[in-house]
Amino acid sequence: MPGRLSAHPPAQSAAVHSAPAHPALALDGVARSYGSRRALDGIDLVLPRGRFLAVMGRSGSGKSTLLACAAGLDRPDEGTVTVGGTDVAALGERDRTRLRRDRVGFVFQDLNLLSALSVRENVALPLLLAEEHGRARAQGLEPLRRADEALARVGLAERGEARPGQLSGGQRQRVAVARALVTTPEVILADEPTGALDPVTAHEVLDLLRRTVAADGPAVLMVTHDPAAAAVADRTVFLTDGRITATLERPSPAEVRRELARW
Fold first, then answer.
1. How much is the average pLDDT of 82-103?
2. How is the beta sheet containing 235-240 ordered, strand by strand?
3. Which of 27, 82, 128, 142 could form a disulfide with 45 if both were Cys (CB 3.0 to 4.6 A apart)?
4. Model confidence at 41: pLDDT above 70
5. 182: burial class by Cβ within 10 Å (0-12, 13-18, 19+)?
6. Which CATH superfamily is domain 25-114+170-261 in?
């Protein structure tokens, strides 16, 4: 049965900036089809700040479409997506881009770090782009200083001048987490963030995300195939044919595996 993460309905607002009382992310009756294929079919999720949600499902279950709709990269055919109370679909393309840059952090398996830039420049890039549009300087953000602070929080304070190619896989993923945090987002969207890492390094990155939620308050929505990764979350939902078919609260890896075995 489709389920909600909270009893509170998703709030609506036309403003790009909103009150903290709004959930970080809310999907209300979201449906998306591609031709005759129903990729999402009535998804209801409410994710408050400071909460960690894992999403699991077989290939084709709708996980990637869910992330794309949550990020405002795809528009639902039905329902609404709000980030911090802002109705994403109600925004024009420029404001949707601004919302993604300022209020949504991204951590993906394909890290999208720019090899020609230093680590601190990669982390600062969202702020530098905002400054280019006249926003960061007005807010006094000092992008490179903020990048150094974000790197310190992920344990890479001494590697700011390095190039991404000089770092290990786990360190590069930490850089991606720092970049996601540098704008103080409402929500971090993570797509298989540990998929290319060995188990020990994956555990370190997941622990970092878990501590980030506890310390800083953004929500995290993570798509994963790994039961151990899902067990880090406060709640795990399972997608089948675009619907939420099961929900587990603070599951153990064994509980996740048992649920997966039912598919």
1. 92
2. 104-108, 187-191, 219-223, 52-57, 235-240, 243-249
3. 27
4. yes
5. buried
6. P-loop containing nucleotide triphosphate hydrolases (3.40.50.300)
